[in-house]
Design goal:
The complex is a heterodimer of chains A (318) and B (312). By secondary structure, chain A is mostly helical. Chain A has twelve helices and two strands, in the order H-H-H-H-H-H-E-E-H-H-H-H-H-H. Classes of the chains: A mainly alpha (318), B mainly alpha (312).
């Protein structure tokens, strides 16, 4: 276990090093270009006299201390800008994850239990449709129906947010905030839901054929107990793994959903930074999101091996 | 099967695949629609009444005309015009063409890279294998869309917009193609590991065939069914990725009609009542992806072995 953890840790560090190298190269390149544009190449040369490696280590040590440069648009440290925007994105992901959790488990179990029922076929057809509609199309459709046509839900922004701690302002504490988060959260959930319904269905059908479910039936346990306690537990293992991998996709989807709903989160900020050519902010976003990815993936891998002791850790790490 | 001679034609119509298709109306209809869309895309320059790249044919006074069934429609523009006065039908045809080219191109790149790496990884084994599979794990842990967004954004910022506009289709194909190779590599590697032990591979080796020939001619055909199934789903994913990137302004430049950028430009006019600029391309996009996904589902159910992963 310790060997596995160590190897996994080294791998995470290597990936982070590669990400930081990319970030540094971009920043270095852009600083040089902007220096040329401003006609102050001489001034630039003074501070960049140092070699590539020296500059890279300066960049990395700055990044570790939380100094990722200053955003040229906000005139604030890039990390501060990102931290201010992060709660909005996290709340959106949280709301979408709750929706996926609430709907995918019952729908997945139902379609596994009654594969030939009309409702199951309907659910599966809708899930293919859901996989085929890109998240920005779903978002636009939701806005068109609920905001333009029926005018019952707001189409952009976060509405009234209630401050909690530091930069964290929440959407869940006011009626207006809740109304604003409904559409973006549903749009995000709609892409993840089909995947999870299909996954839970496939896993559940496997588990229901197993000996221990037959034995539980023979013991006369109530079907609900068998499905939700015995079978579901073993279904969730692959769901956790896929869920971990899908978090990355979810971050990418938040960029799309936030752009459509003008949700003031990290994704929307990133796209604006790209359009403004705000290099330090782009690099900072890349570093922060890269770090989040690496940390989450490492945690999921370690958790997976902890839940599933049959996984041969040392061999996997080789 | 009887031993009597069958012409290639009747052999095709009596194959399991064709018979399965005839008994599966959804797949059949999907195939027909997909074929029609491919033809429309292939002959877009002939079918489109207007040339979207010819600025003399665009008149701003014709902008925001509704499609033919709505009031105030101009008969020349079947599905109306967009905010710049371009004919919707023409730009949708060109957009469809672009989506299909990028989808197929990206999947071609993925297949080439993924299959080669999978073959090498499985056949050579040892350290090479574990290194390549580790790389595949890392690559998979980052989402394709995220990688594409970041790299396209960086190229746009570092290289400048003019450079970006020039190479956009090429960049899209390469980036979407590079980001998804592990899907193929894992499947092919699994097949190689299973087949490598078998006697016919030993026989081929004793006959003095080189490793490349054994890998490509003897082992690879065993995973063609899986590759085919994965490719269908990957085409759908690549089309979604291209549309999403163009929607964000990180894909095709505005002058090139792409379904994603059309939806984005129409979104601004959704609130002012010009719903068709965004709705019609969105509908075309969804139909295209849906049809490919349905074909993929059907292929997986009918020809694929067990180990092809669900969606993803």
């Amino acid at each position: 276990m310790i060997i596995y953890l160590a190897k996994r840790f080294i791998q995470a560090l290597l990936v982070l090093a590669v990400i930081s190298l990319i970030g540094f190269t971009v920043q270095d390149n852009l600083a040089f270009q902007q220096g040329l544009n401003a006609g102050s190449a001489a001034a630039y040369n003074v501070e960049t006299d140092a070699g590539f490696l020296t500059k890279y280590f300066q960049f990395v040590s700055g990044a570790i201390q939380g100094d990722l440069g200053t955003s040229s648009f906000f005139k604030e440290p890039a990390l501060t800008v990102i931290l201010k925007k992060m709660p909005a994105t996290l709340e959106l992901i949280f709301a979408a994850a709750v929706l996926v959790g609430i709907f995918s488990v019952p729908l997945g179990i139902f379609t596994a239990l009654y594969p030939h029922h009309t409702i199951s076929r309907l659910i599966l057809s809708v899930s293919v449709l859901g996989l085929s509609v890109p998240v920005f199309v779903t978002s636009i459709l939701l806005i068109y129906l609920f905001s333009v046509t029926w005018n019952i839900l707001p189409s952009f922004g976060r509405g009234d947010v209630v401050p909690i701690v530091g930069y964290w302002e929440t959407n869940f504490a006011s009626w207006d905030g809740l109304k604003h988060i409904v559409l973006p959260a549903f749009a995000l959930a709609s892409v993840m839901l089909p995947l999870f319904v299909r996954l839970i269905r496939a896993e559940m059908r496997q588990v229901l054929k197993s000996e221990y479910v037959k034995y539980a039936r023979a013991r006369g346990l109530s079907p609900w107990r068998i499905y939700f306690v015995h079978a579901l537990k073993n279904t969730l293992l692959p769901v956790v793994t896929v869920g971990g991998v899908q978090i990355g996709t979810l971050v990418a989807y938040t960029i799309l959903a936030e752009t459509v709903f003008q949700w003031p989160g990290m994704g929307f900020m990133f796209l604006e930074a790209v359009n403004r050519g705000d290099a330090p902010l782009i690099v900072a976003y890349l570093m922060v999101v890269g770090a989040i990815f690496v940390v989450l993936n490492t945690i999921v891998d370690v958790l997976y091996s902890a839940i599933n002791p049959t996984v041969n850790l040392a061999r996997m790490a080789a | 099967m009887s031993n009597s001679y069958l012409s290639p034609y009747s052999r095709f119509f009596q194959s399991d695949l064709t018979i399965g298709l005839r008994h599966h109306p959804v797949a059949f209809v999907s195939l027909v629609i997909f074929a029609i869309l491919c033809l429309l895309a292939a002959f877009a320059p002939l079918l489109a009444p207007f040339d979207p790249f010819d600025t003399t044919q665009i008149d701003i006074l014709n902008s925001e005309r509704p499609p033919f069934w709505a009031e105030g429609a101009e008969p020349a523009f079947l599905f109306g015009t967009d905010d710049q006065g371009r004919d919707m039908w023409s730009i949708m045809l060109y957009g469809l063409r672009l989506s299909l080219i990028i989808g197929l191109g990206a999947v071609l790149v993925q297949t080439l890279i993924g299959v080669s790496i999978g073959l090498i990884s499985g056949y050579v084994g040892g350290r090479v294998d574990s290194l390549l599979m580790r790389l595949a794990d890392i690559q998979l842990s980052f989402s394709t869309l995220m990688i594409a967004i970041v790299f396209l954004a960086l190229t746009q910022v570092v290289g400048g917009r003019a450079f970006f506009a020039q190479y956009a289709p090429f960049l899209l194909i390469v980036i979407i193609g590079l980001a998804e190779w592990p899907q193929y590599a894992r499947t092919v590697r699994a097949t190689v590991l299973a087949e490598k032990q078998k006697e016919y591979v030993d026989a081929a080796r004793i006959m003095g065939f080189g490793p490349v020939r054994i890998m490509v001619r003897h082992i690879l055909p065993n995973s063609l069914a899986s590759i085919f199934v994965i490719s269908t789903i990957q085409i759908a994913n690549a089309i979604i990725a291209e549309a999403s990137l163009s929607f964000l302004g990180l894909g095709m430049p505005i002058a090139y009609p792409s379904l994603g950028s059309l939806i984005a430009s129409g979104f601004d006019y959704l609130f002012s009542g010009s719903w068709w600029i965004t709705t019609l391309p969105a509908l075309l996009l969804v139909v295209l992806i849906l049809v490919v996904n349905l074909l993929g589902d059907w292929l997986r159910d009918s020809i694929a072995p067990q180990h092809v992963p669900e969606a993803g």
